[in-house]
Amino acid sequence: MEYFVLVNKDNTLDKTFVPDDLVDAKSRYKEGILVNKKLLDNFRLMAKDAYNLGYDIDIMSGYRDYFYQEKLYNKLLKEKGFAYTFRKIAKAGCSEHQTGLAVDLCVYRDGKCYIEEEIDEMEEGKWLRENAYRYGFILRYPRGLEDVTGYDYEPWHYRYVGQIANDIYFNNLTLEEYLEKTCK
Ligand SMILES: [Zn+2]
């Protein structure tokens, strides 16, 4: 699978699709989180540089198979209804978590773990937004580009795309726009 693979509401994955290069992220948040190996190598470099600045970041979610995503989607749908769910979580087959190339990040500070919207205003969240591209990651669902990505802003969701992260970051693009522009 190419690191720039696009998975969204219009570009879906089969029920049976399981990526082949998954490894254990050894996350402190939860045991058994799997992610793409190359992603993890680069995440470790990023986490190490962050740590040297006093920031402690970790992975709280990585690879999710089709059926787990289906469970998450249906749970939210039941609790919050369609209009909300549609903008918050991918239907099974439409989630890039199924590629193993997407992670949800959390921040540890003073013995406490911060997740999701909580990291937006934190220094760590800002540092990630400004530096993740150096390690091949992009903030996948940026603020203000909800109409392009189809999802609300998610300060915690990062996608490993490899080298093209540079172009995407400096040109303020989404993955959708980048791929359209370059006809990949
Ligand atoms: Zn996510």
List the helices and strands and how they pair.
Blueprint: E1 22-24, E2 34-36, H1 37-52, E3 56-61, H2 66-80, H3 82-88, E4 102-109, E5 112-114, H4 123-131, E6 137-139, H5 146-149, E7 157-160, H6 165-170, H7 175-182
Antiparallel strand pairs: 1-2, 3-4, 4-5, 4-7, 6-7
Helix pairs in contact: 2-3
Bound molecules: zinc ion.
What does it look like?
35% of the residues lie in helices and 16% in strands. With 184 residues, the protein is of the alpha+beta class. It has one domain: Muramoyl-pentapeptide Carboxypeptidase, domain 2 (2-Layer Sandwich), CATH 3.30.1380. Helix 2 packs across helix 3 (82-88). The longest helix is centred in the N-terminal third of the chain and has 16 residues, at 37-52. The radius of gyration is 16 Å and the shape is globular. The mean pLDDT is 96. The protein binds zinc ion.
Structurally, the number of domains stands at: 1
- Uncertain regions spanning at least 5 consecutive residues: none
Q: What is the approximate shape?
A: globular
Name of the CATH first level: Alpha Beta
Give the rounded overall mean pLDDT.
96
Secondary-structure element string: EEHEHHEEHEHEHH
What is the β-strand count? 7
Bound molecules: zinc ion
Strand content: 15-25%
Q: How many DSSP H or I helices?
A: 7
Gyration radius, rounded? 16 Å
Key words describing this protein structure:
184 residues; alpha+beta; 35% helix
